[in-house]
Amino acid sequence: LTVRFRSCDGNKKIHFGSSEPEDFRVGEDGVVYAERSFQLSAEPTEFVVSAQDKETQQEWQMRVKLTPEPAFAGASEKDQRKIEEIIFPWQQYKHSSPLKRQKRDWVIPPINLPENSKGPFPQELVRIRSDRDKSLSLRYSVTGPGADQPPTGIFIINPISGQLSVTKPLDREQIASFHLRAHAVDVNGNQVENPIDIVINVIDMNDNRPEFLHQVWNGTVPEGSKPGTYVMTVTAIDADDPNTQNGMLRYRILSQAPSSPSPNMFTINNETGDIITVAAGLDREKVQQYTLIIQATDMEGNPTYGLSNTATAVIAVTDVNDNPPEFTAMTFYGEVPENRVDVIVANLTVTDKDQPHTPAWNAMYRMTGGDPTGRFTILTDPNSNDGLVTVVKPIDFETNRMFVLTVAAENQVPLAKGIQHPPQSTATVSITVIDVNESPYFVPNPKLVRQEEGLMAGSMLTTFTAQDPDRYMQQTSLRYSKLSDPANWLKIDPVNGQITTTAVLDRESIYVQNNMYNATFLASDNGIPPMSGTGTLQIYLLDINDNAPQVHPKEATTCETLQPNAINITAVDPDIDPNAGPFAFELPDTPASIKRNWTIVRISGDHAQLSLRIRFLEAGIYDVPIVITDSGNPHASSTSLLKVKVCQCDLNGDCTDVDRIVGAGLGTGAIIAILLCIIILLILVLMFVVWMKRRDKERQAKQLLIDPEDDVRDNILKYDEEGGGEEDQ
């Protein structure tokens, strides 16, 4: 049963006690339990329950009398326990007199019914009665969830006696309380009493074990954590009433594996489930994971009456950087051929006890000495954590035969506080440079030579030699050969590298670009393997006045009259300044007809105008010689023939049709060929006409030989009749 204490001020903190603690125990919530199993006698058993104020120690007492329930339904009336009656509140009814104030409704205390009762059923609870049942025949009923609403049929009432009963065991975890309403009506269904509310509370029993939210809980804790470090929280739930001891859970650790360095590395808050460290010495390098068995017990952890359940807590010890990298050797060795780059010359190995592939394990390498010019770098292999010493700049054996590097290794993250080891490890790397056969090289490259054009074949131009960088290799002298000579002007001596000409150097050659001529030569050694190098010789050709100017264009057209008859001409000279313009233009003295018929006037340094001196010159083709002199020192001049076509012109100054053909630049042979073609075409046309006429004459002769009787024209009859006869319809 449950005892309750209510103080006037409602603020007292009460502790319940029992006069028979070996038989009965009273919880803080007033629930009375049997401490042991025993048989009650037929006589009522009595004991005293006390309520003591925790602050003032004031105490109140009440007596509890326990009566055994009947063993079977047919027990005698004396053996049956007395059923409590609930009487409908009395109220006044109006008659002829004025209305009277009705009596205030009673407050019906709730009915407490333990869950999981074993019966027998139906089990009587209370009796509903109206004090008017003495004068009227009444019928009682109950409504609400559990009676006539789902779940129906749990509570029933005898309509005659008003006996309210429960028909089966109740489960507080499904429904904690029922709210019913009792009714009283007469035989005609008229309401006799106002309905009264009945509350039935289901008293919780400890019938549910605690259940963890997860069977396996995972947590982490950094290695080296101090005692009191929070790790994780485990949580269990109990379906029983959390306001009673049935639902009050307590946690504890049953076991820890492994048990090193201490069997009690962790503790748990028995109320909240928080797991914290309780001892020092967590070291991931020794123990990487702990497994705890956690137990949750209700009844506030009472091992005798509480129900328990267990779960597993797996705690992983996470790594911190408490171990620096350490080189496996004090000195590492490597070698590299000279002039090679992007080559791994040495592997630096380290050991680190921290968890692989984490910032606390990943190594970073740096050079602290021995490489002032930055010819090496150290990369980290992400898989093995090795340091890869790599060449990034070419190394010359003749300059440096060996390097001694000082390197250091440290982690990506700094060491944890309190670690006594040095944060980095150092080592020495000895690298030997291997001599290899290197290519010869020309000095300078390219080599520029300035030379006047016109240098005759067989002349010595220059000496173009190479050097061999391999000073410590025993090999013969270099051999030279020509690799590229577009104009085939040069040759090189294979021993001493002397270059001579094989043809006249001409600046105006098509192989010369911007006065520059390029030739490539090859120098080879006899090393193992043989090596060669190339060099470019650039010849800057200086211009000499070796080209006379020429007239341009070579042909021109003018009219046979004086006006308009000016011809513009231009002087062209392959040479450059000062061996080119301005130019002088003049007509030769012979033949005399040239100056008699023509005149020339310079209009600029490169241009002149040729025109007729006489009023009329017969149409035809004339070769006019023109003497052009450049400004070189000495001067160069030439007589150029300008072919002038003189033609008849129309009013616009254009040549007529025939003369246009001549003016188009056709020669005498071409004109004769055209005329011959025209004559042949005319002959063919005449022959065709003669053949056609001859054929017509032959046809007429054949017609005269035909007999007149056979003339088809005489066989045509004409009747001069049109239309049909009378009978023709």
From TrEMBL:
<keyword id="KW-0479">Metal-binding</keyword>
<feature type="domain" description="Cadherin">
    <location>
        <begin position="443"/>
        <end position="551"/>
    </location>
</feature>
<dbReference type="GO" id="GO:0044331">
    <property type="term" value="P:cell-cell adhesion mediated by cadherin"/>
</dbReference>
<dbReference type="GO" id="GO:0045296">
    <property type="term" value="F:cadherin binding"/>
</dbReference>
<protein>
    <submittedName>
        <fullName>CADH2 protein</fullName>
    </submittedName>
</protein>
<keyword id="KW-1003">Cell membrane</keyword>
<dbReference type="InterPro" id="IPR002126">
    <property type="entry name" value="Cadherin-like_dom"/>
</dbReference>
<dbReference type="GO" id="GO:0030027">
    <property type="term" value="C:lamellipodium"/>
</dbReference>
<dbReference type="GO" id="GO:0005509">
    <property type="term" value="F:calcium ion binding"/>
</dbReference>
<keyword id="KW-0472">Membrane</keyword>
<dbReference type="GO" id="GO:0016339">
    <property type="term" value="P:calcium-dependent cell-cell adhesion via plasma membrane cell adhesion molecules"/>
</dbReference>
<dbReference type="GO" id="GO:0034332">
    <property type="term" value="P:adherens junction organization"/>
</dbReference>
<dbReference type="GO" id="GO:0007043">
    <property type="term" value="P:cell-cell junction assembly"/>
</dbReference>
<dbReference type="InterPro" id="IPR039808">
    <property type="entry name" value="Cadherin"/>
</dbReference>
<dbReference type="InterPro" id="IPR015919">
    <property type="entry name" value="Cadherin-like_sf"/>
</dbReference>
<keyword id="KW-0732">Signal</keyword>
<dbReference type="InterPro" id="IPR020894">
    <property type="entry name" value="Cadherin_CS"/>
</dbReference>
<feature type="domain" description="Cadherin">
    <location>
        <begin position="328"/>
        <end position="442"/>
    </location>
</feature>
<keyword id="KW-0130">Cell adhesion</keyword>
<dbReference type="GO" id="GO:0014069">
    <property type="term" value="C:postsynaptic density"/>
</dbReference>
<dbReference type="GO" id="GO:0007416">
    <property type="term" value="P:synapse assembly"/>
</dbReference>
<keyword id="KW-0106">Calcium</keyword>
<dbReference type="InterPro" id="IPR014868">
    <property type="entry name" value="Cadherin_pro_dom"/>
</dbReference>
<dbReference type="GO" id="GO:0000902">
    <property type="term" value="P:cell morphogenesis"/>
</dbReference>
<dbReference type="GO" id="GO:0048787">
    <property type="term" value="C:presynaptic active zone membrane"/>
</dbReference>
<dbReference type="GO" id="GO:0014704">
    <property type="term" value="C:intercalated disc"/>
</dbReference>
<feature type="domain" description="Cadherin">
    <location>
        <begin position="550"/>
        <end position="656"/>
    </location>
</feature>
<keyword id="KW-0812">Transmembrane</keyword>
<feature type="domain" description="Cadherin">
    <location>
        <begin position="213"/>
        <end position="327"/>
    </location>
</feature>
<dbReference type="GO" id="GO:0016342">
    <property type="term" value="C:catenin complex"/>
</dbReference>
<keyword id="KW-1133">Transmembrane helix</keyword>
<dbReference type="GO" id="GO:0009986">
    <property type="term" value="C:cell surface"/>
</dbReference>
<dbReference type="GO" id="GO:0043005">
    <property type="term" value="C:neuron projection"/>
</dbReference>
<keyword id="KW-0677">Repeat</keyword>
<keyword id="KW-0965">Cell junction</keyword>
<dbReference type="GO" id="GO:0008013">
    <property type="term" value="F:beta-catenin binding"/>
</dbReference>
<dbReference type="GO" id="GO:0016477">
    <property type="term" value="P:cell migration"/>
</dbReference>
<dbReference type="Pfam" id="PF08758">
    <property type="entry name" value="Cadherin_pro"/>
</dbReference>
<dbReference type="GO" id="GO:0007156">
    <property type="term" value="P:homophilic cell adhesion via plasma membrane adhesion molecules"/>
</dbReference>
<dbReference type="GO" id="GO:0005912">
    <property type="term" value="C:adherens junction"/>
</dbReference>
<feature type="domain" description="Cadherin">
    <location>
        <begin position="105"/>
        <end position="212"/>
    </location>
</feature>
<dbReference type="GO" id="GO:0042383">
    <property type="term" value="C:sarcolemma"/>
</dbReference>
